[in-house]
Amino acid sequence: MSDARLEHAGPVAVVTGGARRLGRHLCAMLARRGYAVVVLYRGSDAEAASLVEEIQVHGGTARARVLDVAVEAQVRVVFEDVTAREGHVDLLVNNVGNYNPQHVTRLDPAVWDATLASNLSGAYYCCFHALAVMREGGNIINIGMAGLEGIRANEYGADYYVSKTGLLVLTRSLAAAYASRGIRVNMVSPGQLENSIDLPSPEEIGRWVPLGRAGTLGDITHAVEFLLDASYVTGANIDVAGGYRL
Questions:
Q1: How far apart are CA 241 and CA 216, in angstroms?
Q2: What pLDDT does 196 receive?
Q3: What amino acid positions are annotated as catalytic residues?
Q4: Among 116, 30, 105, which residue's Cα sits nearest to residue 69?
Q5: C-alpha to C-alpha distance for 50 and 19, rounded to whole angstroms
């Protein structure tokens, strides 16, 4: 066994879309909980480097790798690298959620393909390769969107909605299939967050969100932490949305 594997004998977390926004917040939390964090990102070089430095300054362990999750060959190479260096995976967070809302009557097929490739196929590729080296008792947490429990019309962002609905089906399928290995697979589904690109104004948000405010990154992090500790929960989808889309 190599020194690199010995160095990371503790829990290892792999987070996609980990350099910015929610992913960054989750990586910092996981490092505080003692995970060695592998930050996967596509184009945010400066943000990824600063996150790794921030975690290391506070005594944590982290490194970053460039990855386009929509390309299965790249995903395979990254997880081969994780296997060689960390030796195993204990947690995978599929946080990538490309969102480029267009009206469904004008939805460009190229946008449709890119959304499904990154948000759904990419998540599957990461699950497939992570599960090959995931230890018993491991976790997969997928980041969805509020309102997935009810099928409804969505004229704007239909490609995003379809991708996240598919991710919920994948979540439950994997939860059933890997329960015998003690691996739990769950989903956390945010609603309108403080940094959402289509956030209503403070005066109007109460029309859409019964609790009357946008969600914070901390709200989502709390739900992820709950799932890390909830050893008897699998196949669940938790809406963290203040009642949005009830």
A1: 10
A2: 80
A3: 160
A4: 116
A5: 9
